[in-house]
Amino acid sequence: MDASLNHRLLSEEGRKEIVKDYETIANKLGDFKANIKDKFNNTKLTKEQRIKIKEKGLKQSFEENLKNKGISADKIQEIMNDDYINSILTLSDESFQESPASSKSKTIEALGVISVTASKKSFVEHMVDLVEVGSESVNKLVEYIGEDNAIGAIMVLQVALEGAPKALLSLAGEEILNTVKKPVVDKVSTIIDEKALKTQEIVNKEKKEAYENFSDVLAEFGFDVALGGAYSTIRSAKKVDKASITKGDKGTVEESITLKIQKAIQIN
């Protein structure tokens, strides 16, 4: 038996470090489990699947997945009427169905054209808002029907939400097909830090760490939406919720949708 003492136990700061170490290990194990489930359940979207979902229509594809899982009609109606989920699916469907000849300001790749004149927010800030709202829609769906029942519909949400993270990936100078997760997430997180959360301006150490952690999980969720599997997307959405720095400061759901989606996307 190893009777050695971890000297970090003797100070408050040391004990906090130990807790962080265990949280890091647990986090990596959770990520590994989600990746394994994606691999063995074949829940990573192919290019062909994404195209078929767009062609059929997001709302129709989403609802069919729920029906195929045996979700009751009442529950499906409740989900389809959810503010977050309905807004994401509706805006994205309109985006994909937009006629090239239309005089409207077109969105590209589901939430891709941003009206920077609609508010004082920057392009990156709008993208971050949309990614965060997307994570909320994923979390709400899982709350409604459970993780395993939600998988097919989550894959539809991935298609609906892919525009924002792809825009952030392009800003990071990464090819869309680059699937090396950590370096990509690190680059996107840095962009979010500098251009959206303004982490470099924060003096308080704990607040700065919280903001840096939030940018990390937002970047991870964005990567999983655009390039990862459904189980990984669910897992990273939960991380965003846990790390959120905007909880309690969003106003009502209606205000959040209006500020984070409608003002960010110009659909005349």
List the defining traits of the structure above:
mainly alpha; 12 helices; globular; disordered C terminus
How do the helices and strands line up, and which of them pair or pack?
Layout: H1 12-41, H2 47-56, H3 58-68, H4 73-80, H5 83-97, H6 123-145, H7 147-161, H8 163-171, H9 181-197, H10 205-227, H11 230-243, H12 253-262
Helix pairs in contact: 1-11, 3-7, 5-12, 6-7, 6-8, 6-9, 6-11, 6-12, 7-11, 8-10, 9-10, 10-11
Please explain how this structure is put together.
- Helix 1 (12-41) packs antiparallel against helix 11 and helix 6 (123-145) packs across helix 8.
- The longest helix has 30 residues, at 12-41.
- The model is unreliable at 99-119, 248-259 and 261-268 (pLDDT under 50).
- The chain has 12 helices and no strands.
- Helix content is 69%, strand content 0%.
- It has helices at residues 12-41, 47-56, 58-68, 73-80, 83-97, 123-145, 147-161, 163-171, 181-197, 205-227, 230-243, 253-262.
- It is mainly α.
